[in-house]
Each structure stands twice: as structure tokens, then as C-alpha cells.
Amino acid sequence: MTEAKEFNSSEIAAELPEKPEKRFSVTERIFAFISLMLGFAFVRYTVFSVTGFVTTALYIVIITAAIFFIRKSGKRLNGLNRLLVAVLYLFSTVFSITDNRLIKILDVAFLFVIGTYFVYSASGEKKRISRFLPFEMADAAVFCPLSDFGSELHAVKSAGSDNRLAGTVKMILVGLAAAVPLTAVVGALLISADDGIEKLFNNIFNAISGIDLWGIFWQALIAIPCACYLFGMLYSNAHRDGADSFDELVYEEKLNNARRIRNVILYTMVTPICLLYILFFISQANYFLSAFSGRLPQGLLYSEYARTGFFELVAIAAINLAVIIIMNVTAEKGGTSKPAGLRFYSIVLCVFTIIMTAVAVSKMTMYVSVYGLTRLRFYTTWFMFLMLAFFVMIIIKQFRFDFRIAKWGTAVFTFMFALLCFCRPDALIAKYNIFMYSSGHLEELDIDALTEMSDDAVYELLKTDYADREEILTSRYARHKPGENQNLSSVLVGYELERTQ
């Protein structure tokens, strides 16, 4: 009987290969410090400040810095990545052209998603949008940045251990220290020589003394994880090898492995839902036809008629979309060999959703024609049109398997979101209501509702004679103090305030 060999933990650890130490290039070390500054600027001028011109400039700097980093890592931008860069620069201007806070928040989310995907796509030199786009976005926004989240701190530490770089920093600090007394003497002489210089220095001193140091401390603290995320995203993508990237063949195999449910089981599960939809439409036929014919059903107000069923519609659309995805992913027979039954049920669910959405749009149109636009009515209408577009694309996919729904879905969403951002909803709502009131279609113009909106709507109202300019401008005075991070609408309202005073 052979004697068993004993192992201890130290011997096992000695035999394991050592994890290679991360090495950073000069560009990466420099960008580690740039990431800290950009992270602080992001927190200060996007999270803790009213966004505006400064935020637009900040995003342009971040995008440009990311492009420079990618190019220095040896990657070239192809047509798709240049298009993504154009989209990023374009939507960075949203902060400057509108005062609508919700639009700005949505724009931050949009730029985050597109920005992370751009870095992922450019680093992988992808030439087209894959049909596995959701998986790639998850990798771009979560897995890649978090896999190298601590690289920022390692890069900063390695920069400090570089004798040549550390020596340069020390010489710069010595030079600045030596310049302090000389600068103080020159400043004192200039102040005594010119009253204008004295006022300039007083303004600078007052601005510095008014800085909230405690607030800056918290902003700097929050900026550290932001910088780690930014640098980790760029560093991980720059050093990503082929094994780390999402391969379409790999995901195709995973989808094939998920096809384990017999088609007849899925058909049986979905059939009762479809029958329920048919009974519902038959019983409510007169109610739905009233929406398309522009007639208000008896016993209902316009507001009740328009609002009834909208949130239920959103829930039903989400359920139908989930059912369609589950059916097409888990059906035993699917993919390129999708049978007619699977296509039929997918189309039926889409058609039911489209009909209900069209009815809801018609009801909202009747409501708006009588009572005018509000933010909620505008946003819900925009969202319903977006849903219509996506369910139509799903129907097209059932007839043409090679239809790239990820590509066209991204294009449609970007186009619809551009309409939402660049039409400046508050300004559009104010223009529409003012026009409908002046043409006699609206019985009254809700001045209070318009003044409670952003400066986009207020400026449109100031151009008319329907409101008290003095009252509006007085209520807006606090929003237009000098030095505030303003946008175009705020500047225009501030100009009207100065002209009135």
C-alpha cells in the first residue's frame, strides 16, 4: 500500500503561479490623475450643481480624453465608432439648450450607456452593432469597469514610485513654493498702482472665501469611485484580449442550450391570454371606436377617458414583451428554424399591444385638443409612440430573421430620444398652449402651470402679452445669479430680467 503524500498550504501556495503585477504606461499614469480631476468635475457640475454650459464643456472634455486614451492604446476608430462619437458630442449640448431637469437626468443616463458602449466597441474595433447588444452593454457598463476598478489607485501609486516622474513633481512643487513670495510682492505693487487691479483681487478673494470647503470635501470623496470607474473602464478595455470579448458564436451556443421547452407547452400557455384579449376587445369595441372617431363616451370626462388604462397599458406591454422574449428564447424549435406557430403567437401579442397603444394615443389626442399639453401628457404620448415602433419591429423580425432589431432598435430609440431632448418639451408645450389659446381652441391659458415649469416655458411666455412680466421675472430672480452654471433659456430669462430692471 502506497503511502499518501501530505501537502501543506504553504507548499500548495508556492506551486501556484503568481498573479502578474499590473504595469502602467506613462499615458496611463497621467490619465490616472486626469481621471481624478474629471471625476471631481463630474460630481461637482453634474451631481451637485445645476447643469448647463459648464456641464456640456465637461462632457466634451471627457469624451475627447477617452478618444485620446483609446488612440494611444493603439486602436483606430472605424465608421461605427465615429458615429458614436458624433452622437456623444451632440447629446452633450442638451445641458446647454434646455432647462428641463428630467430631460437632463435622462441625458446623463443616455450618455453613460452610449459612452461605455463606445469605449467597449472602439477598444474591440467592432464594425457593427451585434444582435447580442444587451450582453455587450452589460459587459461595457458593469463587468469591464468593475474588473479593473482598483487600477486607478494602483496607477497613481506606481506614478509615485517612478523616480523620474516623482522628481519632476517635486521640482514643480519647489518652483511653486519659490514663486509665492515674489508673486505676493508683485501683486501688492499692482494693487497700489491701479484701483481696477485692487477690485479684481478683492473679487477673487471674496470668491475664494465664499467656497464651501466641507461641500468640496464630500464632492472629492465621491469623486474617487467615479474616477476609479472611469479609469477602470478605459484600462480594462485597452487591455482586453479576445477571450474577454463577447463572441457571437458563444452566445449563439448559450441560446441554443436554453431552448429546452417544447413549443406546444408554450403555445398552450399563451393561448388563454390571447383569447382573453379577444374577449376584451369585443366587449369594449364601442369604447375603443369612440377614441378613433373622436367621440367622448357618455358618462366620462376627457381627463378620465384619457387617463383610464394608461398604466395598465404599460404593464400589459411589458408582460407581452416578456412573454415574446421568453417564448423565442426558450422554445425548443426557434432561431433560424422558427416554426409558424411561434411566429403566429408573437405577432398576435404584438398586434394586441399595438391596438391598445393606438387607442391610448387617440384618447390622449382628444384630451390634449380640449385641455392643452402638460409635461405628463407630452411624455406619455412620446413613450407610447416609442412602444409602437418597437412592437412593429418585432413583427418585422418574425418575417425576416436577418432583420437586425438591435441595430434598428438602437437607431429608433436614439432618434426618438433626440426628438425628446432637442424639441425642448417645456418650450414646445408653452408654444402649443399659447397658439391654441390665441386661436380660440383653448378656453383658458394656465399661466400658473407654465410659470411652474422650467425657463424654457417661461421665456416663451415672456414673449407674449398674456402674463405679468414683472411677477414672473421677480419669481425667477434667484435662479439667475452671476456665475451660475446656466443654459441658454436661463441666460435669455436673465437678460429679460436685466432689461426690465
What's this model, at a glance?
This protein is an all-alpha fold and 501 residues long. It has helices at 9-15, 26-47, 53-72, 79-92, 94-97, 101-123, 133-147, 151-161, 163-193, 195-209, 213-238, 248-258, 263-283, 285-293, 302-307, 310-330, 340-371, 375-399, 405-422, 425-438, 447-451, 455-462, 469-475, 488-500. It has 24 helices and no strands.
Written account of the structure:
The protein is mostly helical. Helix content is 75%, strand content 0%. The protein contains 24 helices and no strands. The chain has helices at residues 9-15, 26-47, 53-72, 79-92, 94-97, 101-123, 133-147, 151-161, 163-193, 195-209, 213-238, 248-258, 263-283, 285-293, 302-307, 310-330, 340-371, 375-399, 405-422, 425-438, 447-451, 455-462, 469-475, 488-500. The longest helix has 32 residues, at 340-371.
What features would you highlight for this structure?
501 residues; mainly alpha; disordered N terminus
Q: How far is the N terminus from the C terminus?
A: 103 Å
Question: What is the chain-wise order of helices and strands?
Answer: HHHHHHHHHHHHHHHHHHHHHHHH
Query: What is the makeup of the main sheet?
Result: none
User: What is the helix fraction of residues, given as a range?
Assistant: over 70%
State the total count of DSSP E strands.
0
Mean pLDDT: 79
Shape: flat
What are the segments in which pLDDT stays under 50 over at least 5 consecutive residues? 1-7, 9-19
Radius of gyration: 30 Å
Work out the strand percent.
under 5%
Structural class: mainly alpha
The number of helical elements comes to 24
Q: Determine the oligomeric state from the structure.
A: single chain
